[in-house]
Amino acid sequence: MRILVISPNDAFRQPAQAACLRFTESLVSLRLADSLGQGLELAHQFEAEVVIVDLTRNVEAGLIAIGDLAAAKMTRLVVASIDKSTTDLMTRAIRAGAGEFIAQPPQEDEIHAVLRKAQRMLSPVEMPENRRGRIVVAFSSKGGVGKTTLTCNLALLLAQKYGAGRVALIDANTQAPNVAPMLDLRPERWLRDAVEEYRRLDGEMLSQIMTPHPSGLMVLAHSADNPLGLDFDEDQLSKILLVAKANFDFVLVDTFPLLSSLNLALLDLSDQIMLVTEAVVPALRSARYNLQVLRQAGYGPGRILLVLNRFTRFRGNVPVELAQETLDWPIETVLPYDVHATIAANNGKGIVEMFPDSKLSQQIVELGGLISGESATTSRPRASLGERLMVFLRGY
Ligand SMILES: Nc1ncnc2c1ncn2[C@@H]1O[C@H](COP(=O)(O)OP(=O)(O)O)[C@@H](O)[C@H]1O
Ligand SMILES: [Mg+2]
């Protein structure tokens, strides 16, 4: 890693230099400059990858220099160091292009953390090439609408149908994971083990970290004891999803209900987004907003499968037609409210295993057909919402 330290102050340059030279996780090549002019020149000649700029003396010129450095392609990370960290100055430095800050005087552990970040930026994770399976991500930015229930049941169904080792279920609900209890699993290894190893993760390693379910489904569970939510980043989960995609026919992913950059990265990798909502005003509002964002991201109806779950008919409830109108998006499936879902969850079983004849299980089977792409291959065209509603209402 080529590092440049720019500071007029010896008391800054020296500890910064010592800290950089003691960084053992990468080969370090270091240059020092005592003026901004010399620094800019050196950054260019030396093709510096990390530039640490001491902003104490000449703030305005320093900000301009940060702007120049950040705009130059070779410099991947510009680190600003300010003695009085006022939010105003920090905001201006970020706007100029600073990606990190360090305090004054420079601390070794802080510099090492920054260099580690630069290292991650400099060596992008190698993503597996061999793309095989389908990634289906269940999403809604509202909790309690049935994402976990549906991902678990769809995964079970697909595993029953396609056989052992062909379907993966990943609990990417980073904050409140509950796939393991839902399926009565007691994993010994967890998502965080895959995250720790993500750089060298391959199919074999991933399978060893996963927990097999008696149905043949392979589950990458996440632990509620130590959700580590904030420690996950997009690269890590993307790599895990892609390794799973390269090694399974179907990869179902459960998520935390939040329109976060992490979830957007997962949605971006998906072949299909299952947007789950219910016919209750707050859930519909949130789904409507999600759909607007996803539409702006360029996802169309082929990619987003809208599921209206837990539907019941009673006076005062929102009828399906109104839900569809509010959402301004085709509702693909209407799933009935069914207490068997709760009974099955309480038993650590899928409703499709415990109550395969229930109306809800039958509807989930249909949804499974849509997700596996099987329905699309039948000669029968997809029924209109009206027809599907009639089927739903007849059976209700
Ligand atoms: N179709 C359904 N009918 C009745 N209860 C359901 C149905 N789908 C889900 N549930 C119940 O709703 C609750 C929330 O479901 P869950 O899958 O945990 O939602 P999410 O993952 O979106 O937070 C659970 O108690 C679950 O058993
Ligand atoms: Mg959930």
Defining key terms:
2 domains, 396 residues, binds magnesium ion, five-stranded parallel sheet, elongated, disordered C terminus, 18 helices, alpha/beta, Rossmann fold, eight-stranded mixed sheet, binds adenosine-5'-diphosphate
Mean pLDDT value: 89
Please describe the biggest sheet, giving its number of strands, its sense, and whether it closes into a barrel: 8 strands, mixed
CATH class of the largest domain: Alpha Beta
Q: What is the tally of beta strands?
A: 13
Strand order of the largest sheet: 8-9-7-10-6-11-12-13
CATH superfamily of the largest domain: P-loop containing nucleotide triphosphate hydrolases
Hetero compounds: adenosine-5'-diphosphate, magnesium ion
Quick rundown:
With 396 residues, the protein is α/β, with parallel strands linked by helices. The chain has helices spanning 10-21, 36-46, 59-71, 87-96, 108-122, 147-162, 179-182, 191-196, 203-209, 234-247, 261-269, 281-296, 320-327, 339-346, 351-354, 359-371, 374-377, 385-394; strands at residues 2-6, 29-33, 50-54, 77-81, 100-102, 134-139, 167-172, 211-212, 218-220, 250-255, 272-278, 304-311, 331-336. The chain has two domains: 2-122, Response regulator (Rossmann fold, 3-Layer(aba) Sandwich), CATH 3.40.50.2300; 134-394, Rossmann fold (3-Layer(aba) Sandwich), CATH 3.40.50.
